Amino acid sequence: MSGYLSILLVLLSFSTIASAAQAQDKPFVIVELFSSEGCSSCPPADFLVSQLTAWARQKNVPVYPLVFHVDYWNYLGWRDVFSNVAFTQRQYEYSYFLKGQGVYTPQMIVNGRDAFIGSDQGELQKDLDRELLAPASLVLHIDLTKQSSQIIVHYQVEGYSNGDVINFALVERGLSTKILAGENAGLTLHYDNVVKEFQTIPLREAASQITFSLGKILDTKQASVIAYVQDMKTMLIKDAKQVDVEHD
Fold first, then answer.
1. Is residue 216 classed as helix, strand or coil in its secondary structure?
2. For residues 20 and 132, is the Cβ–Cβ distance under 8 A?
3. Nearest-CA neighbor of 164 among 230, 238, 227, 234?
4. pLDDT at 55 over 50
5. Cis peptide preceding 106, ω within 30 of 0
6. What are 57-105's pLDDT values in tens digits?
7. Which domains does the chain carry?
8. Element (H, E) at 20
């Protein structure tokens, strides 16, 4: 538990850069965590993301964590209920660009440029210190409308380049699973900002829309859409925005 408590101290130091981030020209941070319910090393990383998510929302700081559950631990006898082969493929795409990193869990990747062990609080803080002082390299606008069992996400991008794509992640907070087998058997694990649906669209138009079904969302009050523009030639992320499904 001492490691978990130290996370709270790290988050307090994050707050010292919050005001600086808000004063810059729209900085942002996308934190992608590749995790698995079947991995015994993953719960501390999941906890760190939960604390980071709560802090960013409370302080209104443009830090957007996403948790992608991979499927390559499922062979141990527990099928991760959030796992998706497409998320595994995304992690392998990153490994091509992040030379020497390989594929493992928990792996954290910040703004598409830096990868490290997902429970490494010091490395995360170093990246946040850097990225929250760097302005976005383009302008992204998103909004959404909720219609019955689906949402329509409207977006506009200014200043994108050939080869850029826009990623949309439908995430949910406040989730938990009782693990009955595998390395985490007997534990009840808690998660925030788990990716339930993910879409990638080439940026051929400056403005358009996409649709998400809410069928996999348990509580729409705990759901958000995170959108981020990425250069697929380098995997660097150029801008990001978040909007809650239930918003004013």
1. coil
2. yes
3. 230
4. yes
5. yes
6. 999 999 999 999 999 999 989 999 999 999 999 999 999 999 877 899 9
7. 2-244 (3.40.30.10)
8. helix 18-23
The length of the chain is 248
224: which 2 tokens? 């958000």
Type and span of the H or E element at 22? helix 18-23
Residue 29, Ramachandran bin (φ over 0: left; ψ between -120 and 50: alpha; else beta):
beta
pLDDT tens figures, 182-191:
999 999 999 9
User: 137 is written with which tokens?
Assistant: 């390299």
Residue located via tokens 């910040």: 110
- The values of phi and psi at residue 7, to 5°, are -60, -40
Exposure string for 27-64, b = 16+ CB within 10 A, e = fewer: bbbbbbbbbbbbbebbbbbbbbbbbbbebbbeeebbbb
8 Å CB contact between 96 and 64: no
pLDDT at 5: 35
Alpha-carbon distance 98 to 103, whole Å? Answer: 10
Element (H, E) at 19: helix 18-23
Residue ranges of E strands in the chain: 29-35, 63-69, 107-110, 114-117, 139-147, 150-158, 164-172, 175-178, 188-191, 194-202, 207-213, 223-231, 237-244
pTM over 0.85: yes
Q: What is the DSSP letter of 245?
A: S
Is residue 204 very low, low, confident or very high in pLDDT (cuts 50, 70, 90)? Answer: confident
